[in-house]
Fold this protein.
Amino acid sequence: MTKGNNILPNNHFRKHWTRFVKTWYNQPAAKRRRQERRQRKALGINNNQKIALSPRPISLLRPVVRGQTIKYNGVQKLGKGFSLIELKEAGLNSKFARTIGVAVDHRRRNDAKEELDFNVKRLKTYLSKLVLFPRVAGKAKKGVVADNDKAATVVVNQNTNPEVLTFQRRALREKAQIISKELKSVHVFRKLRQEWYNAKFVGVKQKRREKKAAEQAKKN
């Protein structure tokens, strides 16, 4: 209580709280509108689009990658974009690849040769099926991927596959099998440690060889 014969505090805060409340009753209808807008854009019906998008695939071509860490490394999924090395192996550059529906991620690195070869093959398969329309009708250009001279007469169905090119996912679990004598005789941990040792001290061993060769040259 306050000291003395004063007025009792009776402060009424936040009387007009309804001004700061936002309702989302239009959320289901907005979701439907976004879906219809995506469909119109894919079919080239949108009035705001100057160029019809109907022959193009509805999604970009993306690489096949694996999840991070040992726990998720067995999961194959679509990545953000192809690395610069993968594009170079397929005969493309990043600037042109973005114009033909290929996603590019300049930060990705290829640590596995198997993954690199698989994504390069995926790119080449896409390029073999690609029909490139010239920007100006009747004036086909030659480049990394040449324009189709008969684009006006070619009937191309739109690719509605979200993955563009479906890839065969490997089974997450391996089938049980009997451990053979050959598998028992292989010391995997010892081999991994030896490879780690060789990779770590490759520079030291190289310097030793060079020093030894220089000493032999002086003696001779």
